[in-house]
User: What shape does this take?
Amino acid sequence: MPIITCIEDLKRLHKRRAPRMFYEYCESGSYTEQTFRENTSDFAQIRLRQKVAVDMSNRSLAGTMIGQAVTMPVALAPVGFTGMQSADGEIKAARAAEAFGVPFTLSTMSINSVEQVAAATQKPFWFQLYVMRDEDFVDGMIARAKKAGCSALVLTLDLQILGQRHKDLKNGLSAPPKLTLSTMLNLATKWRWGLGMLGAQSRTFGNIVGHAKGVDNMGSLNAWTSEQFDPRLDWAKIARIRDQWGGKIILKGILDAEDARIATDFGADAIIVSNHGGRQLDGALSAIRKLPEIVAAVGDRVEVHMDSGIRSGQDVLKALALGARGTYIGRAYSYGLGAMGQAGVTKALEIIRNELDVSLALCGERDVAALRRENLLVPKGFFDAYE
Assistant: This one.
């Protein structure tokens, strides 16, 4: 077993062990992938301000996200196809998050169903909803998430129309994989993955197959998903879902200050500054560039969280210093899952925690709640480089 010291190590191991189509699903953006790349490269432009001769003992990373106690302000983001990175991947990730003391968010496009994850865990998790044209399916999905005991609904707003991801089209992405010659040759080299999948509880989209009208096999599912994302999603529809859910709601996909103000007035418990990991509007600004503007627009009226581009504990620190109350990792934990299963997710969380802890101390702080813009060195014009 190689020595794992950083998220990049997990990424390399993931690439070796997972089928190409699922690794590239994780490691891709839409169109030119400009936004996908800048989500991480923009983080790298922000530097940390070192402070010395301060008491660095008794440090704390603990806090809350929408009132839920967390051991660090990092949640596992909703990621589709997670159960194709490793057999029963959603269950493994949820168990790792539960043991670590951070939230897990299950995607609508998960392989393990909400019922399967609930049966395999002890504590409530969050559920992420894609709004589909089929209102009966949406209503049923909300009811199922309630019955499973999910403690928050994460409503994704930036997938009304699917951005094109070239790698997915070229790879023929599907769950389970279509057995083309190219795919079979690749799968033949991934014996560890294949053996795991033999015992998986589910190998297709567990929340959809058998629950959506007319979807009882992969052929009908592919046609259904290509047509079902609802381009008519507006604030009236969002209000209907909020009222139907009746619990804590997080709105994901906010990248504009005006939208952030509307979402705050709407009564969201939190908003997530996100560009869908660079997988939707290519050419949009990175989430970290937009974060301070959105924090300033809403003040303390709503919790502001952030995802897209976080690959280290230092990235988490930078987001918190710029006003985020919580952060999400998606690709970082997916690398760990594809590399080492549940142990890999735990390893990713340990890496993030340890990097955050050490960097917090060397910045002269003892509590993540104390982080401020003054802990950072930001290039001149970084946040107002674009009009």
